[in-house]
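Example record

Each entry pairs one chain with its bound ligand, pyridoxal-5'-phosphate.
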Amino acid sequence: MNIDSLIPENIKHLKPYVAGRTIAEVMEVYRPTRISKLASNENRMGFSPVAAHAIAEASKYIQDYPDPVSQKLRKKLSGLHAVDEEDIMITAGSESMISVICRTFFKAGENAVTADATFVGFYVQAGVRGVKVKKIPITKNYKFDVDGIIGAAKEGAKLVYIANPNNPTGTYLSKADYIRLIDGVPENVLIIADEAYFEYAGEIEDYPKAMEYRRDNVIILRTFSKAYGLAGLRVGYGIAHPDLITQMTKTRLTFEPTTLAQAAAFAALDDSEFIKKSVERVVKGREQLYRFFDEHDVQYVKSISNSVLMICDDDASAVKFTQSMLEQGVILRRTQAFGLPNCIRITIGTEEDMQHFEQSYLNITEEIYS
Ligand SMILES: Cc1ncc(COP(=O)(O)O)c(C=O)c1O
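Structure tokens for the complex follow.
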């Protein structure tokens, strides 16, 4: 069989996802005294006990298919956001929403615009659909080039993807920039406003909450994978004009998210104390990391999300640093797939995780300079 002849060109060009090292693998290979997994922007504080209880209850019903329209969760979210239930679609993580959007609105060969250093999941899902993605270089301050994106959107693009705050840079579009973007992009071009890190950013004065600036062509994405700590369950959602949602219901997979995911997300929404504590930890951890980096002359990008981007001198130093830290039990993410090969993304973890990071950093630099 000639497998090659079966694979469409756009799939041939995609690279399979390379998963980070698991805790078990790192333990087996390097036997560190502690492992701190700071590679995937998960919530290192865990998840709400209220959600844990809901999962236990819901597990009594897993012989049945999940509710295909996540009715209870949708109703609760519609109240929370003061929108109609018809404006909301719930999927297995927000990456699944991105996939649904690409499946629904694109034919192969059509155009999308985004930045050259943003969430890799968008590049992949657009690539799967055969979409040509124009990646506008980020500015020297690691921010989106709003005018560049608007200009490209006017040249026959069908969709603009923006993560705000952005991953992996942790930077954000200010209110003025966001308004300029949504006003500047033609109204028949869709915009994805991906707010995966909303909970960390929501209190920042100049951060534009996309819900406060709704437009018919804007699809807002949120997730339970970050501050809510439910990444392993896979639940996220989109808020958009009901006519867009109606079209997307045609291409989504019927039975997602799972029963457990729906129940956990529903319950987690009640535990605002857990979110507050998680956000406080990240804010404190970020400040501490900035101080540490300043003391050691490390370059980094200031962030309003749950990770900080460290800038290395070159790609080779980034590879070496990530590997040396791994050997110390600190799992980090190099950001070459996101378009930044000389950078490393560090998720803000617990106090112990961050002490482990600092101590390991000192051990490594001692090794290098002694
Ligand atoms: C900006 C952004 N959007 C979406 C996602 C996907 O999140 P999930 O599919 O877990 O909801 C991520 C995950 O890292 C992200 O960083």
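The first strand starts at residue 36 and ends at 37.
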